[in-house]
Write a structure and sequence with these properties.
Elements (H helix, E strand, L loop, with lengths): L2 H19 L11 E7 L5 H14 L3 E7 L2 H14 L5 E4 L1 H9 L17 H5 L2 H5 L11 E2 L5 E6 H7 L10 H15 L2 E3 L5 H12 L16 H12 L9 H6 L2 H6 L3 E7 L3 H7 L7 E4 L15 E3 L3 E3 L7 H11 L2 H10 L10 H5 L12 H5 L4 E3 L6 H17 L4 H17 L2
Parallel strand pairs: 1-2, 1-3, 6-7, 9-11
Antiparallel strand pairs: 3-10, 4-10, 5-7, 5-8
Helix pairs in contact: 1-3, 2-15, 7-8, 9-10, 18-19
């Protein structure tokens, strides 16, 4: 039986049991409503606490406890909580998982959250990408947009200087990326661009720049048989054949970020969500690195060759929480201009709320050196929503495995593309 179907069946049994035994809804000893707020990123704890504090100052009868767990533990705990009908009052939801939880009734429908004040609130203040990130398969909204992100090119200025190569700019293409990598390797003996076998921080960006796609317009059929997709995939995979690019065995031991900040490589793709912590954690790199927009495809099959994958988290809650109406009021605040501004000014993430991007940018004014973080915001103009459908938990591991088999030589390129296409298509067929 499909794991998701097992989840909903188990949940139904538990709900029946709860209805028979009854649920406690007694007030706390101090007379306040105590809410739990579960997240997975310790670097954002202070920012999330600041938003909670702003709400509770206006609503002193409510207290909100921010709880942090690791990424892997988070999803294990959340699924167990969904099965036992004991989910946190408020929790982060990722696009990788939202369809799973929404389609099986485990997170609340929040489409009408602002209807009493402004029925058009979501569409007035959030982009289409941000709204797509909170939709279930039925098109309804199952969260409040939290943040939004893009992927940029991080580069080592000292290595570029040593090789006599101009820094990346908006005119850079894939050809420039390769030429710079070769010159840097020749001059320094260090890696150039580190083509990590990742999706959001790797080949997805190149596929969409070429004019290909991972999922077709029906959001079910795979795009690995599309000529543009295959051209981009071949280009990205073949980067590993160059001496200036580490192979995937290297990345099994060392992440691109670790290699970069230890001076072993000159370039890698990074999400804006990591930049602030990297500036804080690597003070020895002060003035030695910067970020730029992604290089564009020089010969796209369609489009202008520009694309960056954009994702975004949302705030969610259970439809069966005993404090649901209070939680909805909290979520209305989290999604308001005030709540989103606090998030941006904390440096936690770029607010999903349109027009507040500068709040995140200005956080970087605290440092003695300045990165071109504006480039992450500039790329929203041509951002592409992170690839997702309800079957992704089933097909993603198989797609990743097939990609690694191409890299290792176990599959030919054609065999690997066929395996990826089969993985995506069969996941839907098995539902």
């Amino acid at each position: 039986m499909n794991k998701l179907k097992k989840l909903i069946l188990l949940s139904s049994c538990i709900l029946v049991s709860s209805a028979i035994s009854g649920c406690s809804n007694s007030a706390s000893a101090d007379g306040k409503t105590h809410l739990t707020f579960q997240i997975w990123d310790v670097a954002q704890r202070d920012g999330m606490q600041a938003i909670c504090d702003a709400y509770t100052q206006k609503n002193p009868s409510v207290e909100i406890e921010v709880q942090v767990t690791s990424w892997s533990e988070y999803w294990t705990k959340l699924e167990a909580a969904a099965i036992s009908n004991q989910m946190p009052d408020i929790f982060w939801m990722h696009t990788n998982e939202i369809l799973k939880y929404a389609d099986y009734g485990k997170i609340a429908d929040l489409t009408d959250l602002y209807d009493d004040t402004d029925p058009e609130f979501f569409r007035k203040h959030y982009s289409e990408v941000s709204l797509s990130n909170i939709q279930g398969s039925d098109g309804r909204y199952y969260g409040v947009p939290k943040d939004k992100d893009t992927v940029g090119l991080v580069y080592n200025k000292e290595m570029f200087d040593a090789a006599g190569v101009a820094y990346p700019d908006e005119n850079w293409t894939w050809d420039d990326l390769c030429e710079a990598s070769q010159k840097i390797y020749d001059a320094t003996g260090k890696y150039g661009y580190m083509a990590y076998g990742d999706d959001q921080l790797g080949y997805w960006n190149f596929v969409y720049q070429k004019g290909g796609y991972i999922l077709a317009e029906d959001n079910v059929t795979g795009g690995f048989d599309n000529p543009a997709t295959q051209d981009a995939m071949r280009f990205y995979i073949d980067l590993q054949k160059n001496d200036w690019c580490p192979d995937q065995n290297y990345f099994a031991e060392t992440s691109p970020g670790t290699a970069f900040f230890s001076g072993q490589g000159a370039m890698f793709l990074e999400g804006n969500w990591n930049i602030l912590s990297e500036m804080t954690n690597y003070p020895n790199m002060e003035g030695k690195w910067d970020v730029a927009v992604l290089p564009k495809c020089p010969d796209p099959v369609q489009g202008d060759g520009r694309a960056t994958i954009s994702n975004g988290l949302c705030y969610a809650t259970s439809p069966t929480g005993k404090n649901l109406e209070i939680v909805k009021d909290v979520l209305r605040f989290f999604g308001s201009e005030e709540g989103q501004r606090i998030q941006g000014e904390s440096g936690a993430a770029i607010p999903a709320y349109e027009g507040l991007e500068d709040t995140w940018i200005h956080v970087f004014d605290q440092f003695d050196y300045r990165l071109n973080v504006e480039c992450f915001v500039d790329m929203f103009d041509y951002s592409v929503q992170s690839v997702n459908n309800k079957y992704r938990p089933q097909w993603k591991p198989d797609v990743t495995e097939a990609l690694l088999k191409i890299y290792s030589g176990e599959y030919t390129f054609e065999e690997g593309m066929a395996a990826m296409q089969e993985a995506v298509n069969s996941a839907a067929e098995e539902d």
